[in-house]
Design a protein that fits this description.
32% of the residues lie in helices and 33% in strands. The chain has 125 residues and is of the alpha+beta class. Strands 3-6-7 form a three-stranded antiparallel β-sheet. Strands 4-5-8 form a three-stranded antiparallel β-sheet, with no helix packed on it. The chain has a two-stranded antiparallel ribbon with strand order 1-2.
């Protein structure tokens, strides 16, 4: 049977951060919080996942570094900077085809308002 005294870093079910750090160092793990990260972007051939205001930490074990991302707000975008819904919205607002709206979204880095303005000013064919 495991007793609470067997794990001095735990008191009443809570982990003592100092003891946890010591234990990780003994195991060869290094954890570092990355401050001031405002956005994380993950891209695949078919989509882009954007996480705004995430909490990011690096965990290094035996020379391998892993990035841990938590919190924040997530949104998905289609390839080219905007989702299909974004392209349809821009197309309807600017009175152009979805293809033209998609091109405008690419040029404006997914900024819907900027894409609409560009299309209305006829800067994008």
């Amino acid at each position: 049977m495991v007793e609470e005294n067997d794990f001095p870093m735990m008191r009443r079910g809570k982990v003592n951060p100092r003891e946890a750090n010591r234990m990780m160092q003994r195991m060869g793990m290094q954890v570092q919080q990355l401050d001031d990260v405002t956005k994380v972007i993950m891209e695949t051939p078919t989509r882009r996942i954007v996480i705004d205001n995430p909490e990011v930490a690096t965990v290094t074990v035996q020379g391998q570094t892993v990035y841990q991302i938590g919190g924040g707000t997530m949104r998905e975008e289609g390839v080219g900077g905007g989702s299909d819904d974004d392209a349809k919205l821009v197309a309807s607002q600017a009175g152009v085809s979805v293809e033209q709206a998609t091109n405008a979204l690419r040029q404006s880095n997914g900024d819907l308002a900027q894409a609409i303005i560009l299309l209305k000013q006829k800067r994008i064919p």
